[in-house]
Amino acid sequence: MVLPIARQSVVIKCNLNASIMTGNYEFYYASGLLYHLKGMTVDEIPEPEKLLGQVLELIEDFAPADEREGHLVHMLRFYKPTEEFDGQMKELFVLGMTEKNMWREL
Known about the structure:
The chain has one domain: Methane Monooxygenase Hydroxylase, Chain G, domain 1, CATH 1.20.58. The protein has about 110 residues and is mainly alpha-helical. The two termini are about 15 Å apart. The chain is built from 5 helices and no strands. Helix 1 crosses helix 4. Helix content is about 60%, strand content about 0%.
């Protein structure tokens, strides 16, 4: 149940260009989207603090193609993850990284 809710939350926020991420589930899906947009994959999905460091490096040279991508970067730049980390976060990262209908609401 968490997967579609977290995905939908990020998509709506990017489509509306409003709001911030409120939890690690959204953070992992949004991070996966960034990797997708950069054409990158990972072998191992890191814990929150390490992922945040990687994401911040990736957005340094990322040029958003539109407002949705720009808002995605904005949300990632200002998110402060908690230590919470579980298998659903890993699933959300992979879902974002392999997303076929990136901005489509369910």
